[in-house]
Amino acid sequence: MQPVTIRDVARAAGVSSATASRVLSGNPATSAASRERVTAAAAELGFSPNAQARSLRSTRTDSIALLISDVRNPYFADLAHAVEQAARARGLVTFIGNANEDPAQQDEFLDAMMSRRVDGVLLVPQGLAGGGGAQVSPAVERLLSRDIPTVLVDRTLPAAAAPHVTAESAAAVHDAVASLAANGHRRIAFIGGPEHTSTAAERYGCFRAALADHGLDADEALHFHGDFRTASGAEGARWLLGLDDRPTAVVVADSPMAIGALAVWREAGVRIGVDLSVITFDDIEAFALHDPPLATISHDLTAMGRGAVDALATLMAGDPTGHTVLTSTFTGGASIGPART
Amino acid sequence: MQPVTIRDVARAAGVSSATASRVLSGNPATSAASRERVTAAAAELGFSPNAQARSLRSTRTDSIALLISDVRNPYFADLAHAVEQAARARGLVTFIGNANEDPAQQDEFLDAMMSRRVDGVLLVPQGLAGGGGAQVSPAVERLLSRDIPTVLVDRTLPAAAAPHVTAESAAAVHDAVASLAANGHRRIAFIGGPEHTSTAAERYGCFRAALADHGLDADEALHFHGDFRTASGAEGARWLLGLDDRPTAVVVADSPMAIGALAVWREAGVRIGVDLSVITFDDIEAFALHDPPLATISHDLTAMGRGAVDALATLMAGDPTGHTVLTSTFTGGASIGPART
DNA sequence: TTGTAAGCGTTATCAG
DNA sequence: CTGATAACGCTTACAA
Fold first, then answer.
1. Which residues have a Cβ under 8 Å from the Cβ of A184 and sit 6 or more positions away?
2. Rounded CA separation A119/A147 (Å)
3. Same domain, B139 and B205
4. CB atoms within 10 A of CB A314
5. Is the C-beta atom of A41 closer than 7 angstroms to strand D?
6. Which InterPro entries match (chains A, B) (predicted)?
7. A interface mutation test: which of B71, B142, B262, B284 has the most A CBs within 10 A?
8. What is the pTM of this model?
9. CA A145 – C1' C14 distance (Å)?
C-alpha cells in the first residue's frame, strides 16, 4: 500500500492541502464543513502524517530522548518508567536508549536522536574512563554546544554543563553509618562504582564523610572499585572475604553489585546480619527475595523521573532551569547486626 | 547556535551541496580533494545531518523500534538489551518503547514510530482485555496493513499476523512437573498471567498438559489469574494461602509475580521447599538473592533477541521469513522438596 | 568528478 | 476562512 499523503486527503475532501493541513493539525481557522470532510477523508484513507516532513517544517517533534546507562539495572528501569509516564502526561513520546555503560553506545544513540531532532534530551551521562581532564564525550559536547534542551539525570558532568536532577545521599549515608557504628562496627568496607561517574564519587564521598562523623577513619584499603554491575559485585564480595582482619560491615553502591555480592557470600556460608552486616544503595523490588531484609539507602525514582521531565519541559519552553537535588532515604533492616568481636 | 546544514559545510569546503552530500554519504563519485575538504569542514562545524530531511528523500532510516511490555520486568529488560546489541552489530539504532502492559501506550509508541518511518518494528504485542474476537489494536492493524517489516517477539497474535520469534515451554514444563510429581506432589497450583497474552496461555496450556502426562488432573480452582506484575503475584500468594486443602506446590508464570509471591510467603512463615515447593518461569539474576535456590523454567533471551533481529533484517531485505520457536530450559532447585503428607 | 535543480510531505506566509 | 506558494534540509537525476 502506497503511503497516503495529505494531498490525497485534500483531493478526496475537495479542499486544498493547506486546508487539510489546518484541519488535521487543529488550527482553529477552519470551517465546520471542511473540518468534517477532511477528517472523514483522512479516516477513510487511513492517513497517518509523515512526522519527518512535518517536523522538517515545524521543528517540533513532540518527542524526547532518554539515555540510560543500563536497561538491565532495575534502578534505571524504574527511572525510565517514571520518565515515560511523566512525559506521556505532557503529550511527549519517549525514546529510550541504552548506553550499556559505554560512552560509544551513548554517543551513537545521542547522534541518532539529534539528527532526528527530538525536542529535548534526558541524559544519564556515561563517564569517560580516561579520567584525566574534565572531558565530555564528543556527542555530549555536540548536544550541549547546540541549543538542544538537555537535562542530566542521576549523574552529573564536571563543568556543571547542564541543569541536572540528581540525588544527594549525605544524610541517608550518615544515618546508615550511624546504625553500623551503634552496632559496634569499626571496620566498614565499601564496594563502590566506577570512579568516573559522579554518583560513584558522591556515594563514596558521603561514606567517607559519615565515617568521619562517627570518629572512624576511612581506610582506602577497604574500598573496592567496582563498575555498578553484577559481576563486579561478586568480585567485590570475594575481595572482601580475602581481606586480612576482615571488616564486619560493608556498604554496596548499587543493586546489581549487591545481587552479585550477596550470592557469593551466601555460597561462602557468610550469614548476613550476623557474620557480615550489609547496607546497599538502591532499594529494588527484588530485594524482597532476600532474607533477612536488607538495609538500604534509596532514592525516589518516581520523583527523579518526574523532576527531570519537569525541568526539561521548562527548558523546552525557553525558560532557564536550575538544578534539583533530591534527598535519599535510609531504611534499616536485619542485614545490620552487632559486630562480632 | 543555529543548526549546521549541509550547505554550511559545502560553503566552508568551497563545493556545492551536492558534492558535500555525496562525500558525506559515501558516494564513490567524489575526488580525494573534495572528500578531504568536506569531511574537514563537517568536523570543524560539528555537522550532524538532519535525519528527517534525509529519510524524507531516501526512505531509509537505519533504525528499528522495539516495543516491550514492561521496562521494569527484568525479562524484557534482558530482551531489550539483547535486541539492542544485535541491532547495533548490524548498524541499526534501536528505539525502545515501553507499553507498560497497556495497549493504548503501545499504540501511541507505534504510531510515533511509523510516522518516523523506522525501517522495521520488533513488537511484543499487548493483549486486548476484551477477550472476545481475535482483535488486534488499531495501531498494530495499521502497522501490519502497511508493508512495514514487523516481527512479533515473545508473544504472538491470533491470526499468525506476522512472523514471530517466541519460546515454547512444553518440554521444560514437563520436566518441572515431573520433578514435582517425583516428590509426591499431587495438588499443584498455577499463578498465571493475563489470559489475553499468548505467553500466559501457552504457559498454562503446557502446565495442564504436563499434569496430564503425569496422571494428575488439572483443577481450575488451583489457577490464579494474575497480570505478570509484582502486586498480582502477592495477591496470588495470599489466594493460595487461603485455599482449603492447600496445594503443596505452585508454578508461577513470571518473575515479577514470583517476587511478589515469595515476599508474601516469607512473611507468612511459609518455608519454600518445605511447606511449599515453588517453580517459577523466567530466571533472572536477582533470583540469586533467594535462599533456597529457585527452580526455574527459563528462556534464552539473548537467543530470542538475536533471532528477532535476524528475522527482522531478513524481512527488511525483502525476503519472507518464517517463525522461530525457541525451547525453554528447566533448572531444578532446592525450592522443590518432598510434599508434606 | 562536479553543479544545477527538482522534489520528498508538510506547514507557514500571505494574499484573497 | 481558504488557496497558492515558498520553504524545511537533504538526495539524486540530469547535464556539463
1. A248, A338, A339, A341
2. 10
3. no
4. 16
5. no
6. HTH_LacI, LacI/GalR-like_sensor, Lambda_DNA-bd_dom_sf, Peripla_BP_I
7. B71
8. 0.90
9. 35
